């Protein structure tokens, strides 16, 4: 038997929760508090300036200072309570100044002025309370989001940049609404039967997709060490999915095994075909000779899936992804991202070093974002693999 080593990424927290700095950053981003105070105060300050300018422009016979009551409401959207009170005090001083300019001196006008000021003060206090509630809800959302992200990281158990003879570079993005969790999955394990890779895409998003991903990954981590062939591994996963995943849910998957130098064995379950980029940057799409249905739908098909082998040398780059990459639409035309056409020049020469490989996956991801206009509407996984063994 061969020794088994489990690679772990040093950048991933080993505990269940997120580090305090990460939770703090999540809260800041959610509540806009990562933006400097003066920028968050700009909307309220602009409102003060506009009301003051409108009053001055309308002349002394019109008193528009009571419109300043819009300032607390605007400030409650972006400022902390104490910051809000400070900005609102500027609005109150402006009201005093405008009342002097408009020569508010008779009894009725004075009563109206004091009524407007009392209303402004009460609205400022109420808006500070609203801002406090906003911050509490933002903190709760940040906590839930951080826990969800930590749970998914614990589920994925992200591998390090080197597993067995393989160098890895990954970009994983979840587009799930109101969370940072999605249904894309991957795992890389060094087993007695070589280094094995699983990449999958669960139908749907959110917690349901994560539960299905947990079933698939759990079964893969057990079967990969026990089964001598990829078909046996996949059969074990299929059985687990049929037992524990609701009917109608399915997962596309691609399995790869690196046992002998110069060769990769593949097994496809309805997943995006892998791409091999040779040292000259030529692209080879590795379509399965006998495609199979996704995991969870095996009972609907007859026969058995078959593996196939492809050459894979130390100067090649294997590109694995999910359909969130190839189905990403252009920001204007709606055309899908042409990965096979663009990936060759972007990853050419990436097999030279781990740094080159990491830079290559960054280039592909940046090109993907440029294609979509900076936003992905689906979970997306990019995994680049090179091998280091020379035998």
Describe the protein.
The protein is α+β, with helices and mostly antiparallel strands and 391 residues long. The chain folds into 2 domains: 20-148, no CATH class; 158-387, PPM-type phosphatase domain (Phosphatase 2c, domain 1). Helix content is 46%, strand content 17%. It has helices at 20-30, 37-58, 70-75, 81-101, 107-156, 206-226, 230-244, 323-326, 339-347, 354-372, and strands at residues 162-163, 166-173, 184-191, 194-202, 251-258, 262-269, 275-277, 283-285, 308-312, 317-321, 380-387. It has a 6-stranded antiparallel beta sheet. A hairpin with a 2-residue loop joins strand 1 and strand 2. The protein is elongated, with a radius of gyration of 29 Å.
Offer a concise description of the structure:
The chain has about 400 residues and is an alpha+beta fold. It has helices spanning about 20-30, 35-60, 70-75, 80-100, 105-155, 205-225, 230-245, 325, 340-345, 355-370; strands spanning about 160-165, 165-175, 185-190, 195-200, 250-260, 260-270, 275, 285, 310, 315-320, 380-385.
């Amino acid at each position: 038997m061969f020794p088994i080593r489990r690679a772990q990424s040093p950048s991933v927290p080993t505990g269940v929760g997120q580090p305090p700095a990460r939770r703090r950053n999540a809260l800041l981003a959610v509540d806009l508090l990562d933006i400097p105070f003066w920028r968050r105060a700009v909307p309220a300050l602009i409102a003060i300036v506009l009301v003051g300018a409108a009053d001055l422009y309308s002349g002394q016979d019109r008193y528009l200072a009571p419109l300043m009551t819009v300032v607390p409401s605007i400030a409650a959207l972006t400022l902390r309570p104490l910051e809000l009170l400070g900005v609102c005090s500027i609005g109150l001083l402006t009201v005093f100044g405008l009342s002097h300019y408009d020569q508010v001196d008779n009894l009725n006008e004075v009563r109206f002025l004091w009524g407007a000021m009392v209303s402004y003060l009460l609205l400022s206090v109420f808006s500070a309370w609203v801002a406090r509630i906003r911050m509490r809800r933002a903190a709760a959302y940040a906590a839930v989001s951080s826990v969800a992200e930590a749970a998914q990281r614990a589920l994925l158990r992200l591998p390090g940049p080197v597993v067995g003879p393989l160098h890895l570079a990954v970009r994983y993005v979840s587009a799930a609404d109101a969370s940072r969790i999605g249904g894309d999955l991957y795992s890389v394990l060094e087993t007695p039967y070589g280094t094995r890779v699983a990449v999958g895409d669960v139908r749907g998003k959110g917690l349901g997709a994560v539960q299905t991903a947990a079933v698939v990954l759990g079964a893969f981590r057990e079967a990969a060490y026990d089964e001598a062939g990829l078909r046996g591994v996949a059969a074990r996963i299929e059985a687990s999915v049929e037992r524990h995943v609701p009917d109608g849910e399915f997962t596309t998957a691609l399995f790869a095994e690196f046992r002998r130098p110069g060769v990769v064995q593949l097994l496809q379950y309805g997943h995006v075909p892998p791409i091999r980029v040779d040292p000259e940057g030529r692209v080879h799409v590795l379509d399965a000779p006998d495609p199979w249905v996704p995991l969870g739908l095996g009972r609907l098909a007859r026969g058995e899936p078959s593996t196939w082998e492809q050459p894979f040398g130390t100067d090649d780059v294997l590109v694995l992804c999910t359909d969130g990459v190839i189905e990403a639409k252009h920001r204007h035309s709606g055309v899908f991202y042409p990965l096979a056409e663009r990936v060759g020049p972007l990853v050419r020469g990436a097999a030279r070093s781990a740094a080159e490989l990491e830079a290559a996956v960054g280039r592909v991801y940046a090109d993907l974002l440029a294609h979509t206009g900076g936003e992905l509407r689906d979970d997306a996984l990019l995994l680049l693999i090179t091998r280091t063994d020379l035998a």
